[in-house]
Protein backbone atom coordinates (compact mmCIF):
# COMPACT_ATOMS: atom_id res chain seq x y z
CA UNK A 1 0.00 0.00 0.00
CA UNK A 2 1.57 3.28 -1.13
CA UNK A 3 -1.33 5.48 -0.18
CA UNK A 4 0.77 7.84 1.91
CA UNK A 5 2.48 9.20 -1.21
CA UNK A 6 -0.86 10.27 -2.65
CA UNK A 7 -1.81 12.52 0.24
CA UNK A 8 -1.20 16.18 -0.40
CA UNK A 9 1.80 17.26 1.72
CA UNK A 10 0.20 20.69 2.16
CA UNK A 11 -2.88 19.24 3.85
CA UNK A 12 -3.27 20.42 7.42
CA UNK A 13 -2.41 17.56 9.80
CA UNK A 14 -4.26 17.49 13.12
CA UNK A 15 -2.36 15.64 15.86
CA UNK A 16 -4.76 16.80 18.59
CA UNK A 17 -7.77 14.57 17.91
CA UNK A 18 -7.13 12.41 20.96
CA UNK A 19 -6.99 9.25 18.82
CA UNK A 20 -3.86 7.12 18.53
CA UNK A 21 -2.07 6.24 15.32
CA UNK A 22 -1.54 2.49 15.88
CA UNK A 23 -3.87 0.77 13.42
CA UNK A 24 -3.58 -2.60 15.15
CA UNK A 25 -5.16 -1.20 18.32
CA UNK A 26 -8.42 -0.01 16.74
CA UNK A 27 -11.53 -1.91 15.76
CA UNK A 28 -14.22 -0.35 13.61
CA UNK A 29 -15.00 3.35 13.56
CA UNK A 30 -13.74 5.93 16.02
CA UNK A 31 -17.07 7.72 16.59
CA UNK A 32 -20.53 6.15 16.42
CA UNK A 33 -23.29 7.88 14.49
CA UNK A 34 -24.97 8.97 17.73
CA UNK A 35 -21.78 10.79 18.75
CA UNK A 36 -20.60 8.30 21.36
CA UNK A 37 -17.06 6.96 21.22
CA UNK A 38 -16.71 3.43 19.86
CA UNK A 39 -14.81 2.29 22.92
CA UNK A 40 -15.19 -0.28 25.70
CA UNK A 41 -13.13 -0.08 28.86
CA UNK A 42 -11.67 -3.14 30.56
CA UNK A 43 -9.07 -3.87 33.21
CA UNK A 44 -10.80 -2.18 36.17
CA UNK A 45 -13.63 -3.36 38.43
CA UNK A 46 -17.09 -2.99 36.96
CA UNK A 47 -18.26 -0.63 39.70
CA UNK A 48 -15.34 1.70 38.91
CA UNK A 49 -16.19 1.84 35.21
CA UNK A 50 -19.97 1.96 35.30
CA UNK A 51 -22.15 4.92 36.34
CA UNK A 52 -25.79 3.96 36.89
CA UNK A 53 -26.87 7.59 37.20
CA UNK A 54 -25.29 8.74 33.93
CA UNK A 55 -26.45 5.61 32.15
CA UNK A 56 -30.04 6.40 33.16
CA UNK A 57 -29.56 9.97 31.96
CA UNK A 58 -28.43 8.80 28.53
CA UNK A 59 -30.68 5.86 27.68
CA UNK A 60 -33.68 6.43 25.43
CA UNK A 61 -37.05 7.50 26.84
CA UNK A 62 -38.69 4.09 26.34
CA UNK A 63 -35.77 2.33 28.02
CA UNK A 64 -36.02 4.75 30.95
CA UNK A 65 -39.77 4.10 31.34
CA UNK A 66 -39.22 0.32 31.21
CA UNK A 67 -36.48 0.62 33.83
CA UNK A 68 -38.81 2.54 36.17
CA UNK A 69 -41.60 -0.02 35.74
CA UNK A 70 -39.28 -3.00 36.24
CA UNK A 71 -37.68 -1.35 39.27
CA UNK A 72 -41.04 -0.53 40.88
CA UNK A 73 -42.57 -3.98 40.38
CA UNK A 74 -39.35 -5.76 41.34
CA UNK A 75 -38.73 -3.87 44.57
CA UNK A 76 -42.31 -4.43 45.68
CA UNK A 77 -42.04 -8.11 44.83
CA UNK A 78 -38.91 -8.28 46.98
CA UNK A 79 -40.61 -6.64 49.94
CA UNK A 80 -43.69 -8.87 49.51
CA UNK A 81 -41.39 -11.89 49.80
CA UNK A 82 -39.82 -10.40 52.94
CA UNK A 83 -43.27 -9.84 54.48
CA UNK A 84 -44.15 -13.44 53.66
CA UNK A 85 -40.94 -14.63 55.30
CA UNK A 86 -41.70 -12.54 58.40
CA UNK A 87 -45.20 -14.01 58.47
CA UNK A 88 -48.55 -12.82 57.10
CA UNK A 89 -49.95 -13.06 60.66
CA UNK A 90 -47.88 -9.99 61.55
CA UNK A 91 -50.08 -7.95 59.23
CA UNK A 92 -53.58 -7.08 60.40
CA UNK A 93 -56.47 -6.97 57.93
CA UNK A 94 -55.35 -9.70 55.50
CA UNK A 95 -58.56 -11.40 54.37
CA UNK A 96 -57.21 -13.85 51.78
CA UNK A 97 -57.29 -17.58 52.43
CA UNK A 98 -55.10 -19.14 49.74
CA UNK A 99 -51.38 -18.58 49.26
CA UNK A 100 -51.95 -16.47 46.15
CA UNK A 101 -54.62 -14.31 47.78
CA UNK A 102 -52.44 -13.60 50.82
CA UNK A 103 -49.31 -12.95 48.75
CA UNK A 104 -51.25 -10.60 46.49
CA UNK A 105 -52.39 -8.59 49.51
CA UNK A 106 -48.82 -8.45 50.80
CA UNK A 107 -47.64 -7.21 47.42
CA UNK A 108 -50.21 -4.42 47.28
CA UNK A 109 -49.49 -3.52 50.93
CA UNK A 110 -45.84 -3.20 49.90
CA UNK A 111 -46.77 -0.91 47.00
CA UNK A 112 -48.86 1.26 49.32
CA UNK A 113 -46.05 1.46 51.87
CA UNK A 114 -43.33 2.11 49.26
CA UNK A 115 -45.31 5.03 47.82
CA UNK A 116 -46.44 6.16 51.31
CA UNK A 117 -50.09 5.96 50.16
CA UNK A 118 -51.18 3.77 53.08
CA UNK A 119 -54.86 2.99 52.40
CA UNK A 120 -55.23 1.48 55.87
CA UNK A 121 -57.04 -1.88 55.64
CA UNK A 122 -53.83 -3.88 55.97
CA UNK A 123 -51.36 -2.66 58.57
CA UNK A 124 -48.42 -4.20 60.45
CA UNK A 125 -48.91 -5.28 64.06
CA UNK A 126 -45.83 -7.42 64.69
CA UNK A 127 -42.38 -6.00 65.40
CA UNK A 128 -40.86 -7.73 62.35
CA UNK A 129 -43.48 -6.42 59.94
CA UNK A 130 -43.25 -2.91 61.44
CA UNK A 131 -39.45 -2.93 61.02
CA UNK A 132 -39.72 -4.02 57.38
CA UNK A 133 -42.45 -1.42 56.69
CA UNK A 134 -40.27 1.29 58.25
CA UNK A 135 -37.30 0.38 56.06
CA UNK A 136 -39.51 0.14 52.98
CA UNK A 137 -41.07 3.56 53.61
CA UNK A 138 -37.61 5.10 53.93
CA UNK A 139 -36.33 3.38 50.76
CA UNK A 140 -39.50 4.50 48.99
CA UNK A 141 -39.11 8.24 49.53
CA UNK A 142 -35.36 8.02 48.88
CA UNK A 143 -36.07 6.24 45.59
CA UNK A 144 -38.56 8.90 44.57
CA UNK A 145 -36.00 11.59 45.32
CA UNK A 146 -33.50 9.86 43.03
CA UNK A 147 -36.09 9.32 40.29
CA UNK A 148 -37.15 12.98 40.51
CA UNK A 149 -33.53 14.01 40.03
CA UNK A 150 -33.19 11.68 37.06
CA UNK A 151 -36.35 12.97 35.39
CA UNK A 152 -35.30 16.57 35.95
CA UNK A 153 -31.81 15.81 34.65
CA UNK A 154 -33.17 14.16 31.51
CA UNK A 155 -35.45 17.11 30.76
CA UNK A 156 -33.07 19.92 31.68
CA UNK A 157 -29.74 18.63 30.39
CA UNK A 158 -28.47 20.96 27.64
CA UNK A 159 -28.51 19.32 24.22
CA UNK A 160 -27.90 20.45 20.66
CA UNK A 161 -30.91 18.58 19.20
CA UNK A 162 -29.30 18.20 15.78
CA UNK A 163 -30.11 15.74 13.02
CA UNK A 164 -27.35 14.78 10.57
CA UNK A 165 -27.85 13.32 7.12
CA UNK A 166 -27.40 9.56 7.00
CA UNK A 167 -24.72 9.88 4.33
CA UNK A 168 -22.04 12.29 3.25
CA UNK A 169 -21.93 12.93 -0.49
CA UNK A 170 -19.22 13.56 -3.06
CA UNK A 171 -20.81 16.02 -5.49
CA UNK A 172 -19.76 18.54 -8.14
CA UNK A 173 -18.83 21.88 -6.62
CA UNK A 174 -17.66 24.98 -8.48
CA UNK A 175 -16.10 23.06 -11.32
CA UNK A 176 -14.52 20.46 -9.03
CA UNK A 177 -15.94 18.11 -6.41
CA UNK A 178 -16.65 18.43 -2.72
CA UNK A 179 -17.42 16.29 0.28
CA UNK A 180 -20.66 17.48 1.87
CA UNK A 181 -23.20 16.51 4.49
CA UNK A 182 -25.98 18.47 6.11
CA UNK A 183 -27.67 18.95 9.44
CA UNK A 184 -30.66 20.70 10.95
CA UNK A 185 -32.12 21.43 14.36
CA UNK A 186 -35.21 19.26 14.86
CA UNK A 187 -36.67 20.92 17.98
CA UNK A 188 -38.91 23.97 17.95
CA UNK A 189 -37.38 27.03 19.68
CA UNK A 190 -33.98 25.31 19.97
CA UNK A 191 -32.26 27.37 17.29
CA UNK A 192 -28.51 27.38 17.89
CA UNK A 193 -26.55 30.61 17.59
CA UNK A 194 -22.84 31.23 17.04
CA UNK A 195 -22.54 27.71 15.62
CA UNK A 196 -19.04 26.42 14.94
CA UNK A 197 -18.00 23.18 13.31
CA UNK A 198 -14.78 21.22 13.03
CA UNK A 199 -14.38 18.31 10.63
CA UNK A 200 -11.43 15.92 10.80
CA UNK A 201 -10.46 13.11 8.47
CA UNK A 202 -8.86 9.83 9.56
CA UNK A 203 -6.81 7.91 6.98
CA UNK A 204 -5.09 4.56 7.28
CA UNK A 205 -1.69 4.86 5.58
CA UNK A 206 1.58 2.97 5.35
CA UNK A 207 4.56 4.65 6.92
CA UNK A 208 7.94 2.89 6.91
CA UNK A 209 6.27 -0.47 6.53
CA UNK A 210 3.74 0.10 9.34
CA UNK A 211 0.04 0.84 9.05
CA UNK A 212 -0.85 3.96 11.01
CA UNK A 213 -3.68 6.46 11.15
CA UNK A 214 -3.13 10.05 10.14
CA UNK A 215 -5.59 12.82 10.92
CA UNK A 216 -6.30 15.91 8.87
CA UNK A 217 -8.42 18.94 9.61
CA UNK A 218 -10.60 19.53 6.58
CA UNK A 219 -10.89 23.06 5.23
CA UNK A 220 -14.56 24.02 4.97
CA UNK A 221 -16.51 26.46 2.86
CA UNK A 222 -17.50 28.03 6.19
CA UNK A 223 -16.73 26.94 9.74
CA UNK A 224 -19.19 29.20 11.52
CA UNK A 225 -22.67 30.59 11.08
CA UNK A 226 -24.57 33.12 13.20
CA UNK A 227 -27.68 30.95 13.63
CA UNK A 228 -28.84 27.49 12.60
CA UNK A 229 -32.52 28.17 12.01
CA UNK A 230 -32.66 26.14 8.78
CA UNK A 231 -30.45 23.37 7.47
CA UNK A 232 -26.71 23.72 7.01
CA UNK A 233 -24.90 21.90 4.22
CA UNK A 234 -21.28 21.60 5.31
CA UNK A 235 -18.90 21.60 2.32
CA UNK A 236 -15.27 20.59 2.03
CA UNK A 237 -13.92 21.39 -1.42
CA UNK A 238 -11.72 18.59 -2.78
CA UNK A 239 -9.04 20.71 -4.41
CA UNK A 240 -5.26 20.63 -4.67
CA UNK A 241 -4.97 21.28 -0.92
CA UNK A 242 -7.38 18.55 0.17
CA UNK A 243 -6.10 15.23 1.58
CA UNK A 244 -8.93 13.59 -0.43
CA UNK A 245 -7.66 14.92 -3.73
CA UNK A 246 -7.65 12.08 -6.26
CA UNK A 247 -9.50 9.64 -4.01
CA UNK A 248 -12.04 7.29 -5.47
CA UNK A 249 -14.39 4.88 -3.72
CA UNK A 250 -11.80 2.08 -3.63
CA UNK A 251 -9.14 4.46 -2.30
CA UNK A 252 -11.45 5.44 0.55
CA UNK A 253 -12.12 1.81 1.38
CA UNK A 254 -8.40 0.95 1.43
CA UNK A 255 -7.63 4.01 3.55
CA UNK A 256 -10.49 3.17 5.97
CA UNK A 257 -11.69 6.77 5.70
CA UNK A 258 -13.70 8.23 8.56
CA UNK A 259 -14.92 11.81 8.76
CA UNK A 260 -15.32 13.01 12.36
CA UNK A 261 -17.68 15.94 12.95
CA UNK A 262 -17.90 18.16 16.04
CA UNK A 263 -20.52 20.94 16.26
CA UNK A 264 -20.73 23.54 19.03
CA UNK A 265 -23.22 26.34 19.56
CA UNK A 266 -25.26 28.33 22.06
CA UNK A 267 -28.74 27.02 22.85
CA UNK A 268 -30.95 29.88 24.04
CA UNK A 269 -33.53 27.56 25.64
CA UNK A 270 -30.93 26.07 28.00
CA UNK A 271 -28.91 29.31 28.02
CA UNK A 272 -25.83 27.16 27.66
CA UNK A 273 -23.19 25.99 25.21
CA UNK A 274 -23.98 22.62 23.68
CA UNK A 275 -22.16 20.26 21.35
CA UNK A 276 -22.87 17.17 19.29
CA UNK A 277 -20.66 14.69 17.45
CA UNK A 278 -21.10 12.25 14.61
CA UNK A 279 -18.98 10.57 11.98
CA UNK A 280 -19.13 9.12 8.47
CA UNK A 281 -17.10 6.08 7.42
CA UNK A 282 -16.15 5.29 3.83
CA UNK A 283 -19.25 3.07 3.63
CA UNK A 284 -21.43 6.09 4.39
CA UNK A 285 -19.88 8.34 1.74
CA UNK A 286 -21.70 8.21 -1.60
CA UNK A 287 -20.17 9.43 -4.85
CA UNK A 288 -21.84 11.47 -7.59
CA UNK A 289 -24.94 12.57 -5.69
CA UNK A 290 -26.22 15.94 -4.50
CA UNK A 291 -28.74 16.99 -1.90
CA UNK A 292 -32.21 18.22 -2.78
CA UNK A 293 -33.59 21.40 -1.16
CA UNK A 294 -35.42 20.67 2.09
CA UNK A 295 -37.42 23.85 2.59
CA UNK A 296 -40.35 25.45 0.79
CA UNK A 297 -42.73 28.40 1.03
CA UNK A 298 -46.08 27.92 2.78
CA UNK A 299 -49.30 28.15 0.78
CA UNK A 300 -49.99 31.69 1.95
CA UNK A 301 -46.44 32.70 1.06
CA UNK A 302 -45.71 34.06 4.54
CA UNK A 303 -43.73 31.24 6.13
CA UNK A 304 -40.73 29.10 5.27
CA UNK A 305 -41.29 25.40 5.96
CA UNK A 306 -38.28 23.23 6.81
CA UNK A 307 -39.03 19.66 5.69
CA UNK A 308 -37.02 17.51 8.08
CA UNK A 309 -38.14 14.32 6.32
CA UNK A 310 -36.05 15.46 3.34
CA UNK A 311 -32.79 15.74 5.28
CA UNK A 312 -31.42 12.71 3.40
CA UNK A 313 -33.06 13.41 0.03
CA UNK A 314 -30.53 13.34 -2.82
CA UNK A 315 -30.35 12.61 -6.53
CA UNK A 316 -27.70 11.75 -9.08
CA UNK A 317 -25.36 14.69 -9.45
CA UNK A 318 -26.01 15.01 -13.20
CA UNK A 319 -29.81 14.82 -12.83
CA UNK A 320 -32.22 17.73 -12.65
CA UNK A 321 -34.29 18.21 -9.49
Summarize the structure.
This protein is α+β, with helices and mostly antiparallel strands. It has six helices and 16 strands.
Which terms summarize this structure?
five-stranded mixed beta sheet; five-stranded antiparallel beta sheet; alpha+beta; 321 residues
Structure explained in plain terms:
With 321 residues, the protein is of the alpha+beta class. The chain has six helices and 16 strands. The protein has helices at residues 46-49, 52-58, 61-86, 99-114, 127-156, 249-254, and strands at 91-92, 123-124, 162-164, 168-173, 176-185, 192-207, 210-217, 224-228, 231-238, 258-267, 272-281, 285-287, 289-291, 295-297, 304-306, 314-316. Strands 3, 4, 5, 9 and 12 form a five-stranded mixed sheet that branches. Strands 6, 7, 8, 10 and 11 form a five-stranded antiparallel sheet that branches. Helix 2 (52-58) packs across helix 5, helix 3 packs across helix 4 and helix 3 packs antiparallel against helix 5. The chain is elongated. The two termini are 40 Å apart. Mean pLDDT is 88; it is low at 1-5.
Amino acid sequence: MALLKRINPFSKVNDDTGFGINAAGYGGRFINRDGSFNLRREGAPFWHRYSIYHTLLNISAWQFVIFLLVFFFSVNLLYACIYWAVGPQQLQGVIGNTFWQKFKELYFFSAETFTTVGYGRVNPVGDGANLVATIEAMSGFLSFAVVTGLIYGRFSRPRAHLLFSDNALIAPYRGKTALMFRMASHKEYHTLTDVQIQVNLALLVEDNGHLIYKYYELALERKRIDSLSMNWTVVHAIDENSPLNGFGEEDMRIADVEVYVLVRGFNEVYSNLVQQRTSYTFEEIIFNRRFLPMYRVSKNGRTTILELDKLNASIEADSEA
